Amino acid sequence: MSFIGGHDIRKLADTYGTPLLVYDEDAMRKRLNEFVSSFKSEKLETGVLYASKAFSCKAMVSLIDEYGLYLDVVSAGELFTAYKTGYDCSKIFFHGNNKTLQELKMAMQMHVGTIVVDNLMEAEELAELAKEADYPVHTLLRVNPGIEAHTHKYIVTAHVDSKFGISFLNEEELVETIKVLQNGENIVFDGLHAHIGSQIFDIQAFLEEIKKLFAYSQSLKEKYGIDFHTINLGGGFGVKYTEEDKPVPIEKVCQSMIQTCEEEQEKTCPMIQRVLIEPGRSIVAEAGYSVYTIGYIKKTPNKLYAFVDGGMNDNIRPALYQAKYDAFIEGKEEEEKNTSYTIAGKCCESGDILIESIELPKAEKGDLLVMKTTGAYGYSMASHYNKIPLPAVVFASEKETREVIERETFEHMISLEK
Ligand code: LLP
Q: Distance between CA 329 and CA 306 in Å, rounded?
């Protein structure tokens, strides 16, 4: 028998069906605790935001709320999810490089606390809209400090020509945007936001980001008299997908970042009073397991395929980023791994490979293949390719198991079709 969060995986599969996404709820709670207790400072106000793009649903919003986290949303859909959960919208940070007018209006109707403005046009549009606002709309400006952290090229967000934020190299526009916000009626300009990439293992990249942001903030003050108090450092903390990945423990990352922030605040830019981070992946990835049923097994001249009842529709990451995963067969963890398999999904596409090559005990039809570390950007990037319904999602804890998202039905899938 194999377990997730203390629950027999076979029983979970029998109860909820496969493919199934199971979260070890206690592991998420532990991680949330680690962030909250270690991203703390005696000298600075601190805050942790959950980046809901990694995995968003009502149960997830409630969970992060229990730990007092703020919330990063990047679309009206993520915002709506938080709103319907009853989350306090004043704790929401609304990101995005191309928010629509409807999204901005919706945010203001819901009294979203902070809009993270991406560009000059958005600042101008927001300044117009905020004239009618019945509360102070806080803002941050997304900037691009030009740091390239070591990660996949699609996930890098801060190279100089990134679509996100305004580059330090475009200082005139950057300053003009801040002025629009500072002069805007009912708008409060709080500071700068940056996000340098995702799945980053090198702590130095974050420390360099901190130094650059503090130094740049000070230069904005000295050169243009711009005052503000907040720096949001974004997310990006790496997690362990396979044995090759060696993430630095979260406490250590947070402590190093806090220490550097405190030093920079003291020696470089005393006006900064608050620092924020917004992890997504590192809160949910390692707690998530995708449980699939193995169907047919097929030999080709050079490969041995084991086919599973999901695939790129519920986890696009291997196809899109060549992401690597580890897996085991339920109930066979103690058996010798003597067979090399390619794990493929059931989608009509050759690229629908979940694991290119993995050593496993001999697999049989009906076995459960459990892929590890699938809690981030799997369900949230899932598609309806081949009209395969989205899997069910379960939170398993010592206390209980609960289905937090039902398995989609065919009827759901075609419900909007005329
Ligand atoms: N804040 C901002 C502004 C972001 O753009 C992101 C991620 C985060 C926070 C959270 O980053 P995290 O802690 O999760 O690394 N789909 C890709 C990842 C895209 C990340 C986009 N932005 C993947 O599956 O690897």
A: 11
